[in-house]
Specification:
Low-confidence stretches of chain A: 1-9, 14-24
Radius of gyration of chain A: 25 Å
Number of helices of chain A: 13
Shape of chain A: globular
Mean pLDDT of chain A: 87
Strand content of chain A: 15-25%
Low-confidence stretches of chain B: none
Number of strands of chain B: 18
Oligomer: heterodimer
Number of strands of chain A: 12
Order of helices and strands of chain A: HEHEHEHEEHEHHEHEHEEHHEHEH
Largest sheet of chain B: 6 strands, antiparallel
Helix content of chain B: 40-55%
Radius of gyration of chain B: 70 Å
Mean pLDDT of chain B: 83
Shape of chain B: rod-shaped
Largest interface: A-B, 46 and 54 residues
Distance between the termini of chain A: 104 Å
Number of helices of chain B: 14
């Protein structure tokens, strides 16, 4: 008797339990680790995040992206990593990147269409582009003596030496672009042609790293008059311009090597939710704009443009015009065989006789 | 009435359980049927909505694709290309941008409605849509990931290779998919949305979902769909919004988009639940009603009649045999009542007969007793009347024989007179015995209650009987118990009559040897034993020797004489005095009669 009375009561209860919403709302952790170059994220933004969410930031640093990628591949645990797009494919292939839950990173809609769904990470499954830039020439216009417009100008220096970096892809890339080839070419003959040109260049070139000045930027080498022209980036030019107003940034007409810094979450992270909240925070227009204003870089967020200083926004060294980007090319990862070709070429370049100092 | 197990209760329990089980099975079956039918209904609606959305979306994208392929085919005519692209964009509201690029990613021609995105991009050569379409077969159209513009407009990029080796790309707004799915309503919670194979939501009626670019790739419940979008699928799960839903999928043909329809389980089972409540209510009511009705019926049809029968039986037990149970129905219980009534009637009839018989018997007994009394009275009167003349005959013949009258007669006369005298004495004896017997039988024997000495009495009997023994030349022995009291109370005459009868009987049947008389004290009684060494009494005769006119055989009567009333008188007198007579005998060795009398000491 009482049993039959309970059935209509029990069934809704069972249904209610079965239908109860998935109550596993993730919670924020107390701390996350962030891995990037030293001093490459504004401290004010990190502090603002800690203040708003109560999550401390453990900021760890690396020197080269290659080293950072190796760390992640070897299983070291970080929660958020900024890393060059050139490293992303090997990390994706290695299966060490978390798939980003875009429900927590809704600001991704602000990312400029140029940086979406690129071939190295279709659908931005694992990486979110944060800022980007071109590669060009930093010139002391007063010392160089004439207008600079292309990579080829490096071979026609009349006074002083050329500043270059021990950056394999950029150096080989500039030679390839000067010849009208792709910076990611897999054709040995094109590479060979580029190498020949580089060997020629090396006779009048010095490595910025080897100069007795701040080796993290070409700005001082130029300001001190050690070199009249150098391979460089907007940051070098902007910093140099402050030191000497004759320092200018030139995007070569043959094309420019684009670089893109991405935010990723290693799969080993146990604080993915907090990491995503942090990334979304970094993508907020005011925070992205702060990045552009502090570091003179173009951020991918379109929404941030309103908050970026007009000086920076209108500076073609930072935010290049479409004309400047017409022949822009990303430095992309190479296949292992092509990689070997590049390494051999690079070694031959290093072995080639350099300029007498 | 003693504690008993209620048959009614047990019947009710059994009936209730069986009925409950039956109703439960029926209820569960009906509920299962209803809920499965309802679920099928919802799945049907959802599948229809999904197909509808898929068809519309498919038509939309197909149209765009056909347009794109058309553009790819005519790409060679550079002169008109831009016009054609512009016309396409203008004709199709969803076309955000249409561009043609060469094989190095340089824009050859473009047209856009509003913002120019693709044509201004400096990353075309690295973009997924360019690299995927470059060099592919013209009909192998690339459908990109769903993107959401900063203005929150979902779009996809469709691209295909051109005949000249370049790529034609279309940025197609998916807001039309949003309209399609928003227009599809079923139920109040029914939701249709479009899912890209990589898990991105391409269209959702909820703008909030669209703004957050929800990726459902990690959702367990959608894994099957995303792995194999083309196969039809249904599932019950908790969706990304935390709602328990029933979902179906329909693929949008030739795309990596799947239309998902979801309806909350609470809505999809709403009818079942109300049906369950109603069903449960009806079942409980029906069960209650059935139990009540059955109980009432059983009580009315069985238990009330049974109680009436029981009450009837108790009435009969109390003796009211004419009691009749009311018979209401012609069924088994009615028959039982009829039988009960018949039984009561039978009992009543037989009891009446028996009562009549008892009355007759009592009347007959009274009549017989009266007759017997009258007979004894008559006999005693008759005896008395006979004795008077007999006394006269005996008296006068005795006088004549003693020659006291001075009458002379010869020897012959004397012999006759002697014979008259002897026979009259015998007759007188007989009459006296009769008189004694009839006195006892007519209840007129009045016993005296006077003190006497048993020893003295015994010696008087010895004097009286010893003469007879001497005459027959046999011995006589008297033994007296020293514990015998000196004085007892009783009727001396009656006791003497008993003893003399026994003693004269013993002497009569003893030819040689002796007759012994002994008096013993038995504590509460005293005994008079008479033993002889005579012929004895055979066992078959021991039962009737005390009856009137009975001797062991008729020959002995002639040989030993006597009236045959002696032992009858002994027994009747003894019984009247409250005593008993016992007999021990052995044929040829002799007999012992023992009279036991109550010992009255005052």
């Amino acid at each position: 008797m009482f049993r039959i009375r309970w059935i209509p009561v029990l069934i809704p209860i069972v249904l209610l339990i079965a239908c109860s919403p998935n109550s596993g709302t993730p919670t924020l952790s107390d701390e996350i680790t962030v891995y990037y170059y030293a001093d490459y994220i504004p401290q004010t933004v990190l502090d603002a995040f800690t203040e708003e969410y109560g999550v401390k930031i453990d900021y760890q640093t690396y020197v080269s992206p290659d080293e950072a990628a190796s760390d992640i591949l070897s299983g070291k645990v970080y929660d958020v990593v900024w890393i060059s797009s050139a490293q992303v494919p090997r990390l994706v292939e290695g299966g060490v990147l978390a798939e980003i839950d875009y429900r927590n990173v809704t600001r991704v809609a602000d990312v400029n269409a140029n940086f979406r769904d690129l071939a190295y990470d279709p659908g931005n499954r694992h990486s979110i582009p944060y800022y980007w830039g071109t590669t060009g020439l930093v010139v002391r216009t007063d010392l160089f003596g004439r207008a600079v417009s292309s990579w080829s100008d490096l071979w026609e220096v009349q006074y002083g030496q050329v500043g270059i970096w021990q950056e394999q892809r950029f150096v080989i890339g500039l030679a390839l672009q000067s010849l009208g080839y792709s910076v990611n070419t897999d054709k040995p003959e094109e590479l060979e042609a580029a190498l020949n040109r580089l060997v020629e260049l090396k006779r009048n070139a010095v490595f910025i790293e080897e100069l007795n000045t701040d080796s993290s930027t070409a700005a001082y080498a130029l300001a001190d008059g050690l070199v009249p022209i150098a391979l460089g980036w907007s940051y070098d030019a902007l910093l140099g311009h402050d030191l000497n107003s004759a320092i200018e940034y030139v995007t070569p007409q043959e094309g420019t090597m684009l670089w893109l810094e991405n935010i990723i979450i290693p799969a080993a992270s146990e604080r993915q939710y907090t990491a995503e909240i942090f990334i979304n925070f970094m993508l907020r227009p005011e925070n992205a704009a702060r990045y552009a204003n502090d570091y003179f870089y173009a951020v991918t967020s379109d929404a941030a443009r309103e908050a970026v200083n007009p000086d920076i926004l209108n500076n073609p060294a930072i935010y290049p015009t479409n004309e400047m980007l017409a022949r822009a090319e990303f430095i992309l990862p190479l296949s292992p065989e092509v990689q070997t070709l590049y390494e051999n070429a690079w070694q031959r370049f290093l072995d080639a006789p350099g300029a007498a100092q | 009435m003693k504690q008993m197990q209620s048959l009614q209760g047990r019947l009710l329990l059994l009936l209730g359980s069986v009925l409950f089980a039956t109703l439960l099975i029926i209820g569960v079956s009906v509920f299962a049927l209803v809920s499965s039918a309802e679920r099928d209904l919802w799945l049907g609606r959802q599948a229809e909505a999904g197909r509808n959305a898929a068809t519309q979306a498919s038509n939309y994208i197909d149209l765009a694709r056909v347009g794109l392929q058309f553009n790819a085919q005519i790409e060679g005519e550079y002169a008109h290309l831009e016009d054609i692209l512009k016309a396409s964009v203008a004709r199709n509201p969803g076309y955000l941008e249409l561009i043609v690029v060469n094989q190095t990613g340089e824009v050859v021609s473009s047209a856009s409605a509003g913002e120019t995105v693709l044509a201004n991009a400096f990353t075309i050569a690295q973009s997924n849509w360019f690299k995927s379409a470059l060099g592919a077969r013209p009909d192998d159209v690339f459908l990109g990931e769903v993107q959401v513009s900063p203005q929150n407009i979902p779009y996809i990029i469709i691209s295909a290779s051109t005949e000249s080796g370049g790529v034609v790309a279309l940025r197609l707004s998916l807001s039309v998919l949003g309209k399609i799915v928003a227009d599809l309503r079923f139920g109040t919670t029914g939701t249709t949305y479009v899912l890209q194979k990589a898990g991105f939501i391409a269209a959702h009626p909820d703008p909030k979902v669209m703004q957050s670019i929800v990726n459902l790739a990690g959702r367990q419940e959608l894994e099957t769909v995303l792995q194999n979008p083309a196969s039809s699928w249904t599932g019950s799960y908790v969706n990304f919004k935390g709602e328990a839903v029933i979902g179906t999928s329909s693929v949008i043909p030739n795309t990596n988009l799947v239309v998902i329809t979801e309806v909350t389980q609470s809505e999809a089972s709403a009818s079942s639940r109300s049906a369950l409540l109603v069903l449960g209510g009806i079942t409980v009511l029906f069960w209650f009603g059935s139990i009540l009705l059955t109980t009432a019926s059983i009580r009315r049809l069985v238990f009330l009649p049974l109680r009436r029968l029981q009450e009837g039986a108790m009435e009969v037990e109390k003796g009211r045999l004419q009691f009749q149970v009311e018979v209401l129905r012609p069924d088994e219980i009615g028959q039982l009542a009829e039988s009960f009534n018949a039984m009561a009637r039978g009992l009543h009839a037989r009891a009446s007969e028996r009562d009549l018989l008892i009355r007759d018997l009592q009347a007959a007994k009274r009549l017989a007793e009266e007759n017997s009394r009258l007979k004894s009275e008559f006999l005693s009167t008759m005896s008395h009347e006979l004795r008077t003349p007999m006394n006269a005959i005996e008296g006068f013949t005795s006088i004549m024989l003693s020659r006291m009258g001075g009458v002379e007669f010869n020897e012959k006369t004397e012999r006759y007179i002697t014979r008259v005298n002897v026979n009259s004495k015998r007759l007188l004896q007989l009459i006296n015995d009769f008189l004694d017997l009839s006195r006892v039988e007519s209840g007129r024997l009045e016993l005296a209650h006077q003190p006497f000495s048993p020893a003295e009495l015994a010696r008087r009997w010895q004097t009286e009987i010893g003469v007879l023994a001497e005459k027959k030349n046999i011995g006589f022995e008297l033994t007296l118990d020293p514990h015998l009291p000196d004085t007892v109370y009783g009727d001396e005459e009656a006791i003497s009559k008993v003893a003399i009868n026994l003693l004269s009987n013993a002497i009569k049947f003893t030819e040689q040897g002796k007759v012994s008389l002994s008096l013993t004290n038995g504590g509460s009684d005293w005994r008079i034993s008479v033993s002889d060494t005579g012929i004895g009494i055979p066992p078959h005769a021991r039962e009737f020797v005390f009856e009137e006119f009975r001797q062991v055989d008729q020959t002995s009567k002639r040989k030993y004489g006597g009236t045959g009333l002696g032992l009858a008188i002994v027994q009747k007198y003894t019984r009247t005095m409250g005593g008993t007579v016992t007999l021990q005998s052995e044929v040829g060795a002799g007999s012992t009669f023992t009279v036991t009398l109550p010992l009255n000491l005052n």
